[in-house]
Amino acid sequence: MAQDLQSAGPDEAGQAYFDRIMAEDSRIEPRDWMPEAYRRTLVRQISQHAHSEIIGMQPEANWITRAPSLKRKAILMAKVQDEAGHGLYLYSAAETLGTSRDEMMDALIAGKARYSSIFNYPAVTWADMGAIGWLVDGAAICNQVPLCRASYGPYGRAMVRVCKEESFHQRQGFEILLELAHGTEAQKEMAQDAVNRWYAPALMMFGPPDDDSPNSKQSMAWNIKRFSNDELRSRFVGMMAEQVKVLGLSLPDPEVRFNEDTGKWEHGPLDWEEFKEVLAGRGPCNAQRLERRREAHENGAWVREAAAAYAAKQAAKRASTAADDLDVRKVA
Amino acid sequence: MIPSDSQTSQARPGALVAGAPASDSKVSTSSTSAALPSSSLASQARPGARAAVGPAAVGPSSDSKVSTSSISAALPFGATGDGSASATRITPGNALRPEDIALAARTGAAKPGNDVAEYALRLGDDALVLAQRLGHWISRGPELEEDVALGNIALDQLGHARSFLTYAGSAWGKTEDDLAYFRREPEFRSAHLFEQPNGDFAATIARQFIASHYQYELYRRLAQSADATLAAIAAKAVKEVDYHRDHSSQWVLRLAGGTEESRRRMSAALDLVWPYVGELFDDDALTARLDGTAVAPSSLRADFDDLTGAVLAEAELAVPDVPRAPGGGRAGRHSEHLGYLLAEMQVLAREHPGAGW
Amino acid sequence: MVEKSMTPGRDTAAAGGTTAPAAPVPESAPEHTSGLPPQRHGWPLWEVFVRSSRGLSHVHAGSLHAPDAEMALRNARDLYTRRNEGVSIWVVPAEAIAASDPDSKGSFFESPQGKDYRHATYYTKSEGVKHL
Ligand SMILES: [Fe+2]
Ligand SMILES: [Fe+2]
Ligand SMILES: [Fe+2]
Questions:
Q1: Nearest Cα to A201, choosing from A313, A149, A130, A276?
Q2: Residues 6+ apart with CB under 8 A from C60
Q3: Each residue's pLDDT tens digit in chain B (357 positions)?
Q4: Which of A249, B173, B342, B349 is disulfide-compatible with B181, CB 3.0–4.6 A?
Q5: Are A151 and A90 in contact (CB under 8 A)?
Q6: Residue numbers of B between 7 and 46 with CB closer than 8 Å to A
Q7: Mean pLDDT, rounded, for A56-67
Q8: pLDDT at position C16, please?
Q9: What CATH number corresponds to the domain at position C64?
Q10: Cα B349–B350–B355 angle (5° rounding)?
Q11: β-pairing, C88-93 with C58-65?
Q12: What CA–CA distance (Å, rounded) separates A29 from A317?
């Protein structure tokens, strides 16, 4: 289309405006001119984020039917339901950039899209509900709070809503662990085991180390990312190191310490090879997670089609009624 | 200079909205929603009309219910609209919770007799089993929006279950969890309808359609119960199941009037669950003894038939002509399905008897 | 001074609107004449506006997909008012929203600039006079 051809060329005025917005730390809105690379980066990041919320429902949904008390069942249901909402808010934000939810969902199901690799680990005990809430949602919140100020307006606004809802997620996880840690010997063991398994993957949620994170610099220049991966990870480790004491549990990392010289928290080495393996599809649950998403999507196809068909029929009916009314008026 | 403008990111709906949404009032006053009295949503179906009403819609600001949740206090995000208009201000709301009932029972303010407790157990088990079924849908819905919708319904049902079970348990010194996790299958008092498998989306909707219409008629009357706690639980629950009724009716209409496939599935699903309708309306000795406190199930049938019949008629579906199943749930005789459901629900709690969570 | 957003409250996929000329349509979706992504299942996008309490305006809360207005309202209720965020909801088909043209940044919102006399603060001589 002619319009597209026009906008495909370099737009100096647009670029200047965009640069000014960045320099002033203001916000870009959907209809503003933006560099193609900025748009692509956002679509990739926001859709990956959305996919993570949706796939991330599975390990926890797995325990809704087995939650050991009705109160916990209600909390977990509300939490997993929130994650569906988060995915939805984020898909909507990505849609403002011209990519439909259908396209994103199809890419996910086809295995062409990425999502946070942590959700490819299995949630095998109830204590995992605690560790996921405390560590995984905790890391997510650390990542997400700065994103509320992302330069792309719809993304930032979606994150404001998400962050408000997230705040109970981490607390409920912490309290699950707290109960277990003060429960029977078996419960305490279960809690420690879960923390041991989720700790390292949670730290890796912040992304590769800064010197191995090629896109970070550009994202920071664009005011999408506000802090580096290592910066956020270090802050997170510091918070966990304090909170784990309240739990009466320990982090599976003897090297966690506060470095007086740098003023930063440090942690032991992380297995980035494993991280890459899982991200590349060779984690414990990759196939299972995608299959489950595919199944839900395909099983729902006839429902979506039915509702669309019904809406079309109703609209046609209304249109013809309106036409009849018009005829009647003419006659009268 | 001019004080810095506060328009930054304000949404000013109306200002730039070209015309009201195409939602036709005829649709929202179809016989379905007309048949649903206090549906609060129906009255908002026409934003255009609402806006035109103007001052009439402006009441005293209900801001006395200040958001004091730690959530909003902890986050530095302010309201984004004009003045304090905001689409993200959250509050915990104000309603009867299971914790309140437990407290009332502990302090002796409300303690049911054995018959009332047995009756509450039935209602609690219906809701619990249904919540357990619906909870399975979260992450498996036909669209994300529906994941959230079914999640809300499941949470409503779970809330009702917890209230009824807490109240029932207080007669016997048991908690909601004692009753949910440590009773055996024959001790459950739920009707067979609620334990029917989720099946496809149509089967779940068919089960919801029956369950919500039944529960609506029941709670509407139970809100007048001589037992103040039952009445209070029902008064809260009736508003929620009113919405469940609307949700299932909307889907019955869409599936029946959608595609050939969806119509076939909806019709088959109704045939599949309709045999379990009969049991819901059976009176027995317990409901007879509790006259004035419990609602006689048979007294709900006529309204149930009228209202479900109206929706089915609009959907151009016949009321299924299928023989009723014998039931037996109120006496602890269940279908083949409940055992599996309980096994899954109870497995963890029973692995750690006496543990806290 | 920063020029404020040219698209008040608009952060929708349909921000291109049906009337906006030359809205930058992304390369990835050249077929979207209206700026709306294609919906294979025919569930269009809706914009949701929530009134948080009586006496306040409806404010844009977000978007969702729904087959029709009735379901859009219900989905909006389930999605955007789970925590008592609202007492009233509007849903608007995203494609029914007309938005101002972001390319007219300079001129469209220029007129009010500098018209200090529209604001009470312009009138300094009367400052300090009670009840004025
Ligand atoms: Fe989330
Ligand atoms: Fe699809
Ligand atoms: Fe979360």
A1: A276
A2: B11, B13, B87, C9, C10, C11, C47, C48, C49
A3: 333 333 333 333 333 222 333 333 333 333 333 333 333 333 333 333 333 333 333 333 333 333 333 333 333 333 333 456 777 777 777 778 888 898 888 888 888 999 999 999 999 999 999 999 999 999 999 999 999 999 999 999 999 999 999 999 999 999 999 999 999 999 999 999 999 999 999 999 999 999 999 999 999 999 999 999 999 999 999 999 999 999 999 999 999 999 999 999 999 999 999 999 999 999 999 999 999 999 999 999 999 999 999 999 999 999 999 999 999 999 999 999 999 999 999 999 999 999 999
A4: B349
A5: no
A6: 9, 24, 26-27
A7: 97
A8: 37
A9: 3.10.20.520
A10: 55
A11: unpaired
A12: 38
Neighbours of A287 (CB within 10 A): 13
Q: Which two tokens stand for residue A319?
A: 């249109």
In a domain, C66, yes or no: yes
C84 at the A interface (CB within 8 A)?
no
Sign of the CA dihedral with A107 first, then A110, A113, and A116 last = positive
| Dihedral angle sign, alpha carbons of residues A70, A71, A73, A78 | positive
For range A22-47, the mean pLDDT: 94
Q: Does C7 reside within a domain?
A: no
- Do C81 and C46 contact (CB within 8 A), yes or no? no
Compute how many other C-beta atoms are within 10 angstroms of the C-beta atom of residue A194: 27
C26 inside domain: no
What Rg, from alpha-carbon coordinates, does chain A have?
A: 23
Q: Supply the pTM of this predicted model.
A: 0.83
With a cut of 70, say whether residue A80 has pLDDT above it: yes
Chain A contact set for C43 (CB, 8 A): 304, 307-308
**Is A1 within 8 Å of C25 when comparing Cβ atoms?**
yes
Residues A41 and A131: their CA atoms lie apart, in Å, by 31
Domains along the sequence of chain B with CATH: 63-351 (1.20.1260.10)
Put simply, the answer to whether A318 touches B27 (Cβ < 8 Å) is yes
Asked if residue C48 is part of any domain, the answer here is yes
Ligand 1 center to residue A220 CA distance, Å? 23
Range of the domain at C86: 39-99
* Best CA proximity match to C52, nearest among B112, B50, B79: B79
| CA distances (Å), origin B238, targets B29, C32, C82 | 21, 45, 18
Q: Which residues contact A120 (CB under 8 A, 6 or more apart)?
A: A278, A283, A284, A285, A286, A289
What is the number of domains present in chain C?
1
B278 Cα–ligand 1 center, Å: 43
The residue of chain C nearest to residue B39, with distances taken between CA atoms, is C74
Cβ(B15)–Cβ(B219) under 8 Å? no
Our CA angle for A72, A73, A79, nearest 5°, is 85
> Which stretches within chain B are classed as H helix?
25-28, 31-34, 47-53, 70-74, 98-106, 114-135, 144-170, 176-181, 192-195, 201-222, 228-256, 260-273, 277-280, 285-289, 301-314, 337-351
Bridge partners of residue B348, in order along the sequence: none
